[in-house]
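PROTEIN SPECIFICATION:
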Amino acid sequence: MSKLITRSFGTLLAPALALGLLVAEASAQQPEAAAESQCIATAEPATIQAGQTAVRVGLSLSEGIGAVTGLSAPEGSGLAIAAPEDIPRAELASPDAPQSQPIELAADAETAVTVWLRTQEVQAGEFDVTVQGETGTCRATITVATP
């Protein structure tokens, strides 16, 4: 009777193990696919000037990440999103016109965004930043030059 139980258990266990191995293999391949589809942003202009209270940078995203909610720069870089009051107003704007925002969606809001960056305390160099959106993130390199 014990051989019958062992054989029946082994017969039931083999397909379950095979299924488990297939699931494990499929999940091991998913991170590779995610790494291949990582979002990259291209900055325009490619180089911005240090020492500015507000510099306009357009970002073209390789894929949509939803509405942009923020930008993170390396700690100690000094690179940050500009304060709304530091963003220059259009010459023809009335005093009652709404203040510009540090993050603006472009015409193609899924893959283009404009950010205003503060570079007052930034040293010259290349900085890898992360653009945060509602549904994902995107990496960009911002180059800062001294005037």
Notes: The longest strand covers residues 125-133.
